[in-house]
Amino acid sequence: MSGSILSASSRLRIGSIVLSVIVLLFALNAGVYESIVPRFFRGALTAQESFVLFELRVPRVLIAFAAGAILSLVGLVYQTLFVNPLASPYTLGVSGCAAVGYVISQFFLPDSLRSSLNTICSIIGGIAALCVLLPFLRSNKLRMTDTVLLCGVLLSLFCGSLLFLLQYFLDPAGIVQLTGWYFGTLSVTGIEKPLLLLALSLILLLILRYSAPALDLLLLGEEYAHGMGVPVRALQLRLIGFTTLLVALTVAFCGPIGFIGLIMPHFGRAMVGHSHARLIAFSFYSGGFFLVFCDATARILGGMQEIPVGLVTAIIGCPVMVTLLIKR
Amino acid sequence: MSNHESWASILEVSDLEIGFSNLQLASSISFSLKQGEWIGVMGSNGVGKTTLIKTLLGLVSPRRGRITFLSQALEKAESADLRKKFGYIPQSLLSIPSLTLFEYYSSCWRNRFSRNTSCLSEEVLSSLQAVQLQEKKEIPLSSLSGGELRRALFGATLLVKPSCFIFDEPTVALDSMAEQEIRNILANNQLRKGSSGIIVSHDEKFLHDICERILVLTPQGMREQS
Which chain B residue's Cα is nearest to A213? Predict the structure, then answer.
């Protein structure tokens, strides 16, 4: 007997809650205006500090959490449905296609159309990626898991090249803006976009929680799940359709942030096991808080300059993940 | 052997033609499965035994003919609820995940009886006990031996209380001891609980031990083994 009063899952839950609160306070406090959180608790905020906290940092933390949670959950869904541990919105080219759609709208359409069409063009890009990937969900093609991944990587490379090609048609200011956006930016004003993304991430969480047993059975193969009464085709179409829409929206609001969708599901498996019932909840929270933490770190490291959050997610996350994989 | 002549038929297959879009494997397949009856299906390699099972499950569209299960036509895509009444074990799995046995059984239960989780633990443990795997409930599927994995799959089908079991080569690649364990479980009438089953196998003795009837699939149709 271990003699411990709390079970491993209770310890993990309490540890996660404590860590989440610390990350949240750290993220709200990080940036040029230091000690803003302690001053808030002392009731000593100036009007300017109050503006920074409530109009800039709170929306930023919310959109970072929602984007991280969405990318992490979508990575998990793709890895299960495409039966491939390397599947993610980034490696399957969905983020890349959505990014091309966004960039064409943002940098090449007239100003009057831009704001209304950015998101729509990003979604059209996501749908284009779906048109390439969906044939692999037709019967028997799922067995060609390497082919799915190869196709996704090719799509991703194609979109990356297209984005670099588009840079040649931009002025220097446009190139700087595009480069920053391409590695992810969580700079946001107003609460609408963060709340929209947060609401959608919660809807995705609920849908996936409901589908968790079916996703578990899909781990044994499409045929087996079908034979056990899982409506495989309908589930695949519903989940791939909705998650692709969410990836396109996330790309339009925050840029194509890589890494999270690929790695957080693996981190989750190392922490809570392979059952989707636990993995979905864990991926949601860990993906969300990881991006909040990385964004806060980027703000501290950058000082007055904005370091793209996508760089920080990879620089912090890769060594942690490699260590976990070696230990496993 | 029981006489099932007068029992109600739960699965009716009439004039079925199986194969793929450009390849016909077998035609004029007609047979029925009665309540409580187990039938074995034999046939030479490539005649379409596994394709027949996949056609029954809706994984492959029939080229012609009709399948009626529990008095309802079994259409390909829209019959997920009806298909939940099958308990299927394929010849091989696409992958063996690291879900623990308990997690796997819980998901099978939730997928079948989504709202009723009050007796989940009790039912899961009872099924694990039936296949003598209760000691391994926290072991990942990927760590089980071949025989244990087959027993685990059978236990999962018991858990979902199917009207009709469908097993494709349940003893393939098992050693004699593991095969005997599967034979003992399948021959246990208490576990079968009056359900019906179709077993595809090359092992005639195994089928004779378990099934009331043996059918032989040929390209020209299904015939009863004399």
Answer: B107
Q: Does domain A15-327 have CATH number 1.10.3470.10?
A: yes
- CA–CA separation, A89 and A87 (whole Å): 7
Q: pLDDT tens digits for B126-177?
A: 999 988 899 999 999 999 988 899 889 989 998 988 889 999 998 887 788 8
Q: Is residue B37 part of a domain?
A: yes
Chain A residues close to B104, C-beta within 8 Å: 216
Whether B17 is covered by a domain: the verdict is yes
Size of the A and B interface in Cβ pairs below 8 Å: 101
Tell how far CA B203 is from the center of its chain: 16
What's the pTM value of the predicted model, to 2 decimals?
0.89
Residues of chain A with C-beta less than 8 angstroms from the C-beta of B95: 83, 219-221
Q: Nearest Cα to A256, choosing from A139, A132, A125?
A: A125
Please answer yes or no on whether A229 and B96 come within 8 Å at the CB atom.
no
Q: Classify residue B100 by its DSSP letter.
A: B
Specify the number of domains making up chain B. 2
Are A204 and A246 in contact by the 8 Å Cβ rule? The answer is yes
Looking at CA atoms only, how far is residue A243 from chain B in angstroms?
22
DSSP letter for each residue of A170-231:
S-HHHHHHHHHHHT------SSHHHHHHHHHHHHHHHHHHHHHHHHHHHTT-HHHHHHTT--
Q: Domain coordinates of chain A in residue numbers?
A: 15-327
Contact flag A229-B83 (C-beta cutoff 8 Å) = yes
DSSP string for A237-254: HHHHHHHHHHHHHHHHHH
Q: Which residues contact A147 (CB under 8 A, 6 or more apart)?
A: A136, A141
A229 vs B57: CB contact, 8 Å cut-off?
A: no
**Does A220 contact B at CB distance below 8 Å?**
yes
Print the domain residue range for B24: 7-85+164-226
Could you list the pLDDT tens digit for every one of the 226 residues in chain B? 444 555 688 999 999 999 887 888 998 999 999 998 999 999 998 889 999 999 988 888 888 999 988 888 876 545 667 888 888 999 888 788 899 999 999 999 999 887 677 788 889 999 999 888 999 999 999 999 888 998 899 899 989 888 899 999 988 877 888 888 888 888 876 667 778 999 999 888 889 988 989 999 999 988 887 6
Q: Which of A74, A84, A103, A107 is nearest to A162 (CA)?
A: A103
Q: Do B144 and B187 fall into the same domain?
A: no
Residue ranges of B 131-170 with Cβ closer than 8 A to chain A = 140-141, 156, 160, 166
